[in-house]
Amino acid sequence: MYGGGKPLYEIDTFLWAGLWSALSNAVLGNIISDVLFSSVTTPKIDSGILSVYTAVPNLVFATYIVGFLTNLTDKMISAVVSFAGYRICMKLYETYVFPREK
């Protein structure tokens, strides 16, 4: 707990937020990519889509799988970085706003 009396969040809260963000972003982003751009995205993701498409010749499936994995990786990294920033901010808050008496 910090000086305000509220408990600190743990990393699992940030990871769950990242997971739900990745799922919703993958579904909506892949639909938009498929409908508007015919599954053409950045060159690095396109090479991943091409690799999956070679194994399973279904462009929509390949777009969804690669997009989901890309989003999941991106959001999990973001969740860990956000958690680190949160912990740093809480330590600063505790130090400067509610300093502990010695």
Please describe what this structure looks like.
By secondary structure, this protein is mainly alpha-helical. The chain is 76% helix and 0% strand. The relative contact order is 0.17. The two termini are 17 Å apart.
Topology:
Blueprint: H1 11-37, H2 43-55, H3 59-96
Task: Describe this protein with a few key phrases.
single chain, 102 residues, mainly alpha, 0% strand
Task: Tell me about the largest β-sheet.
Answer: none
| Rounded radius of gyration (Å) | 20 Å
Q: What class, by secondary structure content? A: mainly alpha
Number of strands: 0
Q: Which parts are unreliable, with pLDDT below 50 for 5 consecutive residues or more?
A: none
What's the SSE pattern?
HHH
Distance between the termini: 17 Å
SS element count, helices: 3
Overall spatial form: rod-shaped
Mean pLDDT: 75
Helix content: over 70%
Name the beta content range. Answer: under 5%
